[in-house]
Inverse folding.
């Protein structure tokens, strides 16, 4: 992190602000509002907007002055939402074409079955069309956290599936997502893409941003943010994030 105070603080969602697919703790919800009264706040994740609403937006304290300074970037920034005074409204969405979606869906299902990763007992659908992203979730979107952790603790399965699908759709980007997921987007779409969109929309330089993520390791889905030169802080879970935010909040002045 640079010595200057950040103008934007951005976060991964799952396992950074909250357990996977779970609501943020009230402590974190209050911290996000307190932070938005000081700097711009962004959340960037592979999930779709419904996930952002259920996990974060619906849990935020009523704070109209702060909500205007919160940026939501679902599906790694291929969609972008800002608060318009009454709700978070869509600014843009860069969706896959029908052909791209069909090829991605076919490739990931066929390769998952070939590799033996297509589970018969799941918590919801395995495949999801998120508009700008196709997502494979091995145990379904609503799988409990412990089951997801146990499915692929070394990320070996996700990596094998990612490589197999990438070979089938070389014109698309295939990346490991959350603990059991693989995401397919257009080429060049990752969290670095989202951070660039954030810089474009806010006019704030990447050097003036700070990113919190739990997967900054070389194979992690937060790593592109570190590689593009944005100051980053690695966390081990939402409690670690909350502790670190207490320290950051103490350093930042409330916006006048």
């Amino acid at each position: 992190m640079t010595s200057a105070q950040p103008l934007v603080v951005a976060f991964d969602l799952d396992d950074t602000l909250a357990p996977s697919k779970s609501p943020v703790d009230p402590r974190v919800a209050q911290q996000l509002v307190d932070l938005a009264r000081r700097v711009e706040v962004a959340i960037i994740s592979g999930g779709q907007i419904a996930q952002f609403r259920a996990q974060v937006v619906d849990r935020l304290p009523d704070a109209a002055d702060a909500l205007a300074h919160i940026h939501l970037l679902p599906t790694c920034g291929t969609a972008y939402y800002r608060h318009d005074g009454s709700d978070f409204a869509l600014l843009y969405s860069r969706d896959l074409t029908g052909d791209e979606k069909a090829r991605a869906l076919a490739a990931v299902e066929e390769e998952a079955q070939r590799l033996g990763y297509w589970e018969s007992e799941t918590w919801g659908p395995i495949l999801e069309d998120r508009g700008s992203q196709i997502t494979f979730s091995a145990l379904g979107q609503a799988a409990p956290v412990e089951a997801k952790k146990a499915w692929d603790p070394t990320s070996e399965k996700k990596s094998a599936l990612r490589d197999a699908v990438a070979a089938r759709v070389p014109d698309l980007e295939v990346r490991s997502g959350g603990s059991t997921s693989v995401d397919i987007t257009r080429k060049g779409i990752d969290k670095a893409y989202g951070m660039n969109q954030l810089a474009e929309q806010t006019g704030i330089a990447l050097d003036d941003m700070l990113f919190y993520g739990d997967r900054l390791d070389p194979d992690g889905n937060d790593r592109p943010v570190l590689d593009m030169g944005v100051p980053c802080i690695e966390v081990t879970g939402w409690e670690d994030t909350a502790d670190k935010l207490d320290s950051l909040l103490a350093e930042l002045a409330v916006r006048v």
User: Anything to note?
Assistant: The radius of gyration is 18 Å.
